[in-house]
Structures are given as C-alpha cells and as structure tokens.
Fold this protein.
Amino acid sequence: MATTMTPAEAPAGASDSHDSPVAIVCVGMAGSGKTTFMQRLISHLYTHPDPTHPSPSVTKNPGAPPYVLNLDPAVHHVPFDPNIDIRDSVNYKEVMKQFNLGPNGGILTSLNLFSTKIDQVVGLLEKRTRPQPVPKAPEQSTADFMAGKTTPPVPQPPQVKHILVDTPGQIEVFVWSASGEILLSSLASTFPTVIAYVIDTPRTTSTSTFMSNMLYACSILYKTKLPMILVFNKTDAQDAEFAKEWMTNFEAFQSALREEEEGGSFGGEGVGGGSGYMGSLLNSMSLVLDEFYKHLSVVGVSAMTGEGMSDFFKGVQEKKEEFERDYKPELERRKREREQAKVASREQELGKLMKDMKMGGTGKGPRKTEAETVSDAEDMGDDDDMAVDNDFDSDSDGGERADGGLEGRYQQALQDSQGGPKDEDFSFARYLHKANIG
Ligand SMILES: Nc1nc2c(ncn2[C@@H]2O[C@H](COP(=O)(O)OP(=O)(O)OP(=O)(O)O)[C@@H](O)[C@H]2O)c(=O)[nH]1
C-alpha cells in the first residue's frame, strides 16, 4: 500500500493555506511515466472534490479542474489538453533547423525562447487562481420580468487550485538550464511549488539503479531548492515497498547490497569491475543520503490504474505547508539579495557611464548644473537645450556634434560598457521576429 514517509505535521496557520493554489512540476527520466502520471492527476482532480480522499465524488459536485502546462517542446502527442503548450509558441523542429542544433540543443533553445514569455504565463496563472467573482445575473428584460422568468447567471470558470507542469524527459536540459531556473523561480515566487520526481519503479529494483536515481533526485532537490515528493510509479508492475524500506532502514539496504554482491551483480574481479569497490561506494552513499531522505515525501502510485493518487495529494499538501513555512522565507531573502545586488550593479554601471561621458567632453568651462544620473541629464536636455550643450558639448553654438551629441555619446558609452550587440543577438532577434514570438 502506498504511504507517505514524512509525518504530516500540520503547522500553525496551515488551515488557510489548504485552499490556496499549488504548482506541481513533474520531473523524471525519459519513460518514467511523467505524461501518463499527468493524465492521471488531471482525471483525479476532475473526479475528486477532495483529491486527498480516495473515493471519487459521490455527489454531482465535480472536482476543481487544474491548469495544465506542457513544457516539453519535443513531445509528439500529449494525451490531455494543456491550457498552455510550449509547442503553440515555439516550433522545436524549426528551432533545430534555424540554429543548426541537435535534439537537446533544440529543446534547450525552445525553453529559452519560451522563458521570455514567463511574465505573461504567470499573469495568466494569477488570473485563473484568484477567487472568481460571484457571477451577476444578466439584465432582465421587462417582458421576462412581467412573465416571472428568471435569467440564470453566466457561469464563471472555477478557481484553479492546482497548476500541473509536464517537463521534458531530458531532465538536465530543464533543471540545469538558465531557462529552467527562470521558469521554476518565477512559478515559485508566485505560488507554493512542489517538485514531483517520477521514478520508474520496475527499473529501480537493483541497489545500483536505485542509488543512481536517489543521487539524481538529490541533485535536483539541491539545484531547485524546492520541496520534493518521490513518486515511485508503475506500482501495478512492481510494488514500491522495497524502496521505502531501503530509505528508512539502512540494514535492509545493506542486506540487499550483500545479496547482489554475492550474486555477482557488480561484475567480476579486476579494475572497474570489482564488487568490493561498487559495494563499498553504494554502502557509503546510502549513509550519506540518509539525511536527504528525511526531507522527502515518498509515495507509490500507478499512473495506469490510479492507485496511490490520494496519497500523492496528501504528500502535496504536506509539501505545500513546508514550502510556506521553510522555503518561502528563504526564497524571499534570496530575492531581496538579488534585487539589492542588481541596484548596486546598476548604480556602479551608471557611475562608470557618467564618468566616461564626462571624460569624453573637452571639459571647457565650468558646469552650469550637475546632472547626477543619465535621466537627469536627459531631463535637463528636454527643459533647456543650451544647458546640456554647455555641459557636455564643446560647441558653444549649441549645434550637433560630429559624434551625435549627448545622445550619440550616451549610446556609444552604453555599447562600450556592454560590449555592443553581437551577431548572435541579431540572429536571435531575427528568429523571434520571424517566428512571431518576440
Ligand atoms: N505498467 C505501467 N506502465 C506505465 C505506467 N505509467 C506509464 N507507463 C508506461 O510507461 C511508458 C512511458 O510513459 P510516458 O508517460 O510516455 O513517460 P514519460 O516520462 O512522459 O516519457 P518522455 O515523454 O519520454 O519523457 C508508456 O509505455 C506508458 O504506458 C504505470 O503506472 N504502469
């Protein structure tokens, strides 16, 4: 039976977070069953008004439909109807052709292009996750009123409680790319966000594949810094109890390791194939990962049969509360730090720019008024052309300088400080323009 490992500790004030929306990002190796799992999540949410409850709705009251995003640009067919599909904005095959890229480069560039639209995506999500206004009955005609007819209110789309995100099977392309980080951090700065790491259980029964999967999950947890649920999928084909036991009972893992060693699973004697080396590495790894296991919820599901889905949503609820309690303050602290660093670097750049501009002039005559920022200088230009000419131009007649005057020098200084546009920027901009996505 599927159970979550982390005990549900309901923190103070958690009750009001019960109804707020949560984003679930499905990550997993190719073929682990992410897309099938997504399809199962959607159907579970449609039929279960309380998704943490195993029995579906017995009344006519339907569940709240989720908002679904597909971020896999290379997928041929998705068995559900996503609200936002990366394939509608970016043509993956065209990207590969235009930039002369292979499949992984194509996925990465498509994600980069899509991430330029993240503000619009988050805007849409915010709109749909807000409590919907109570529908107003439309104006009634006098004839209807006299006849005693009532006009039914126009139905509103229900408030979205779950945002589901499907990602490419090439995990590293999503998790380790700048665009993946932009997409995840934009989501996480707006909604509690949980990573569902989907694992192919039948292919994880040996200690070495299990450990490889755990190390991968560990790297994703530390890279994304978001709460994670380990979803052992395909439990109809292989029960996930062994994995839960290995994660909670170190001795059980060791005894499985010994059995495999004795069965010669790690190859023969000699360099690289020595069972001693593999066995002791796996042993040490399981000790190291002990701390990591404590931060996870573990659930066994079958995306095929629907088994374990209510346990998964219990795990989501726990992780959502953990996000609010532990991750959100940390995210906000990092955001503040980034903003402070950005302001500091902008001020430094502006200081440099102003210095360059002052040095670029002839320095003839005293300044009439001191411009402290570029916008000050431009404002002064708007109000009093002569003042600007006197300040920055050598021409006392106020005419245009050969190098384009203040604006020309400002552009030049900006280009110098940023290294100027590169050829790739132009081709990228051309592509955006051509593909109508810029
Ligand atoms: N027995 C069983 N098979 C499953 C289950 N979930 C998925 N599968 C099968 O696993 C295969 C891969 O499933 P997908 O959902 O396409 O996997 P994916 O992770 O989205 O694959 P990529 O798109 O390549 O990343 C398919 O043949 C599914 O039918 C399950 O719960 N049980």
